[in-house]
Design goal:
mainly alpha; globular
Amino acid sequence: MSVENADRFIRFIKEDPALIQKVKSAGPENFEKVSAEAGASCSAFDFVCAVLDGLKK
């Protein structure tokens, strides 16, 4: 798990908006499982850090 994987997961979400619904449906306790199934294993904290880094750009 890493912020780099979270960046990848964000790209996957942009390419496949259905992932947003998968994340929401799975709930917070299964976020890591959904990201891993997508091929970009990351924690919710990694994801938030990646989003925050993206805001700086």
